[in-house]
Design a protein that fits this description.
Distance between the termini: 51 Å
Structural class: alpha/beta
Number of strands: 16
Shape: globular
Order of helices and strands: EEEEEHEHHHEEEEEEEHEHHHEEH
Number of helices: 9
Number of domains: 2
CATH superfamily of the largest domain: Ribonuclease Z/Hydroxyacylglutathione hydrolase-like
Mean pLDDT: 96
CATH topology of the largest domain: Metallo-beta-lactamase, Chain A
Largest sheet: 7 strands, mixed
């Protein structure tokens, strides 16, 4: 579904669930799209006529429709381009073999008798630099580097309209997500605070189901604070119960429901990012047998 934000800027809302993502369409002298993962809704945007395609980051739910833009100059942050050629990075499962006891079916080279698109090359024409401004006629878009979800994750600011597209600073009920090898808890927090400082009047994200126009700062604060609340639950549990990553995942500190193996994996991968951070802070140690426990100092707090 395409929903107008202004005369020239629209949100393209996916109807295909978590494996797809919302996009932004600019219809001006130069036609431009941000992300391509809207699934069936992408057809409404007529991707064959788009001049420029901006990729916010390397995950398949945001760039999975890139092939439908034959005339577009495709752009991405330099830190993202290498990961676009790695199936496990595209599918956000790069630590699967380490954390799971079953194979990931997404990594089969053929699915239903056809080559898996994750294994085919993804082409990027130009590097997209932080602070770069793209001119589309009456519409300007500024590239904002907002790492945390991935190292090169970018958001996009429309300065005249004060609209922000935040991609996977998603503001959805299940976010934030920071389970990749290049993800960073601290960077994610800093990026959210940087977005708050911009005081946007309207916000669109990759997975929130509407255009945000009210209470934006409060929504961003609540979203940011989920990260440290998750970490607090993990630390409190470890004070009394030294545990492995698998035991911790069973406590569901991140996601209250585990409907499929991917959610279990993402639970484990994000708990691991918190454990790595807590180890750096000196609050947790990793013992023989891959069991984690709080340090004496953390236990006495």
């Amino acid at each position: 579904m395409i929903k107008k934000i202004t005369d020239r800027i629209s949100a393209v809302f996916t109807e295909d669930g978590f494996s797809s993502g919302n996009c932004v369409l600019v219809e001006d002298t130069v036609s431009l799209m941000i992300d391509s993962g809207a699934g069936r809704a992408l057809k409404e945007a007529r991707p064959e006529r788009i001049n420029i395609l901006l990729n916010s980051h390397h995950h398949i739910d945001h760039m999975g429709g890139n092939d439908f833009f034959p005339a577009a100059v495709k752009m991405a942050h330099p830190l993202e381009i290498e990961f676009m050629q790695v199936p496990e990075k595209l599918s956000a499962t790069d630590a699967w073999k380490e954390l799971m006891d079953q194979d990931c079916f997404l990594h089969a080279r053929e699915i239903n008798g056809r080559p898996n698109r994750l294994y085919q090359p993804w082409h990027i024409d130009e590097i997209m630099q932080p602070g770069q401004i793209l001119e589309c006629g009456h519409t300007r878009i500024r590239v904002i580097h907002t790492p945390g979800h991935t190292a090169g994750h970018c958001s996009f600011h429309f300065p005249e309209e004060n609209i922000l597209f935040l991609a996977d600073i998603c503001l959805s009920k299940v976010g934030p997500w920071y389970g990749g090898s290049d993800s960073s808890v601290d960077d994610f927090i800093r990026s959210i605070d940087a977005v708050r400082e911009m005081k946007p009047e309207m916000v669109v994200t990759g997975h929130y189901t509407d255009i945000l126009r009210e209470n934006i700062d409060a929504i961003l604060v609540e979203y940011r604070d989920r990260i440290l609340k998750r970490e607090g639950r993990i630390l409190d549990y470890l004070k009394d119960t030294p545990s492995t990553i698998h035991e911790l995942a069973g406590k569901r500190f991140i996601y209250p429901d585990h409907p499929n193996p991917f959610v279990v994996y993402w639970e484990k991968s994000m708990i691991m990012k918190h454990l790595e951070r807590l180890i750096e802070l000196g609050e947790v140690t990793r013992e023989e047998g891959n069991r984690f426990r709080t340090t004496v100092a953390a236990s006495s707090i």
